[in-house]
Amino acid sequence: MKKYNIVIVGGGSTWTPGLLQSLCKNKDVFPLKRLVLYDINPERQEVIGEFAKILFKEKYPELDFEYTTDKEVAYKDMDFVFCQIRTGGYEMREKDEKIPLSFGVIGQETCGPGGMAYGMRSIRDMIEMINDVRKYSPDAWILNYTNPAAIVAEALRRVFPDDKKILNICDQPVNLLRSYGRLLDMDPNEFEPVYFGLNHFGWFTNLYDKDGNDLVPKIKEIILEKGFAPVDAEQRDQSWLDTYALVKDMLQDFPDYLPNTYLQYYYYPEYKVKKLNPNYTRANEVMDGREKRVFEECRRVIKAGTAKDCSVIHNDAHGDMIVEVAESIAHNRNRIYIIITENNGLISNIQDDAMVEVAAILGKNGPRPMGVGKIGTFYKGLIEQQLAYEKLTVDAYFEGSYEKALQALTLNRTVVDAKKARKVLDALIEANKEYWPELK
Ligand SMILES: NC(=O)c1ccc[n+]([C@@H]2O[C@H](COP(=O)([O-])OP(=O)(O)OC[C@H]3O[C@@H](n4cnc5c(N)ncnc54)[C@H](O)[C@@H]3O)[C@@H](O)[C@H]2O)c1
Ligand SMILES: O=P(O)(O)OC[C@H]1O[C@H](O[C@H]2[C@H](O)[C@@H](O)[C@@H](O)O[C@@H]2CO)[C@H](O)[C@@H](O)[C@@H]1O
Ligand SMILES: [Mn+2]
């Protein structure tokens, strides 16, 4: 079997150890020749890289592994690039969340003004990364899950219109599928989903079992009766449990389809603002929780010299998904994933150049997305408003336009009021001086 070369961009990410464990777990079905971790932060990367050396000595001794901050070493002769960077780190995520909240607006890393701020930071680095990769590996598949995926995908669509080997993908739909699997006591790998929307802004319309029966009515019934929890509820922080619990409310109000959890920020902005703590946001929870746990555990493994009893770094949907997606492409498995792609009629009453999220058959020749036809007025209205916000944000970035940024924020359902939008925007501009283009 062919052995593949992979680079993980953002090798120092909190998700990397889980991803490395997924690569070990899948070594028989998706064998690697070479794996490189690349990061711009040598300190973070060293901890994860030294952990990886111990893990691979025990579980993947034949692997040619290295970690680096040198782009040529990182990108040369690669088959797959897994990209998970966070421009500005958790320090800026905290500002994305706290600045809007200080004006009484949703503070979330991918939704509302926080998502805009993070998007305007990510675009420049993502363009640079793709240009660098293409210099050294013109044919590599670039699997990107850097957030905010909707804004990143729209920017990359504009800059690299002919590059058919960039795939933007989010793991939230997979996590939801796994959670439905737990609810029904069924294997989620057997589900055939029908899904439409934008990233962090979509709905499952149907979910077929292997005999073609639609499971959505049953799932709705259970959620409405008993509530909803993530598949890995035991490992989740309270904020994620609260997020999943609100799916019941969303179904009570809008029972047509199963909503992506992120829709709660758009359906219930007032309620969510009241619930969010402006002094201790998700960024604080992550820095005090996952980030600490992951780095402490890596350091413990390095000191112990063995990864055999490594426990807190579990395999979650994120690592598994990205490895399985690569394997489906490499071996033409044609499995179904929910991916981000240019609309071109997939949702027939939405503009062609929207980057939409739908189910797709994924094989060697890339995704073959599945259309959903015409959608109802409520969903079309929501999507078009959010899409306008996303497109105007990307316009603002490329044109350096303050006006477009203000229009974008005013259109966002989490903001609405233009005077408020201006105040939040001005504060975000100040906080992002180092990262954003100048908006005039
Ligand atoms: N699409 C999804 O569903 C999904 C799921 C999980 C995480 N993510 C995304 O993955 C990314 C990583 O998340 P995290 O919480 O682990 O953050 P993190 O800050 O722990 O990790 C990001 C790493 O990227 C590095 N980095 C920053 N800019 C870089 C650049 N230009 N080139 C190379 N490396 C760079 C940082 O030094 C850091 O080590 C984020 O964008 C996050 O939103 C996406
Ligand atoms: O707040 P964070 O940093 O914990 O998470 C932000 C990410 O949330 C979603 O990812 C889920 C993922 O679906 C699940 O598999 C598991 O790994 O937990 C993650 C959240 O903890 C979302 O899809 C991502 O885009 C976010 O980056
Ligand atoms: Mn996501």
Care to describe what's here?
There is one protein chain. This protein has 440 residues and is α/β, with parallel strands linked by helices. Among the domains are: 4-169 and 282-325, Rossmann fold; 380-431, no CATH class. It has helices at residues 16-25, 42-59, 71-75, 89-102, 112-136, 149-159, 172-184, 216-226, 238-245, 247-253, 264-267, 269-275, 282-304, 317-330, 377-399, 402-411, 418-431, and strands at 4-9, 32-38, 64-68, 80-83, 141-144, 166-169, 192-198, 201-208, 258-259, 335-342, 355-363, 366-369. It has a nine-stranded mixed beta sheet. Strands 7-8-9 form a three-stranded antiparallel beta sheet. β5 (141-144), α6 and β6 (166-169) form a beta-alpha-beta unit. α5 crosses α6 (149-159). The model has no long low-confidence stretch (mean pLDDT 97). The structure holds nicotinamide-adenine-dinucleotide, ligand LEZUNG72 and manganese (II) ion (MN). The site of nicotinamide-adenine-dinucleotide has 26 residues, from α4. Substrate binds at residues 93, 147, 282.
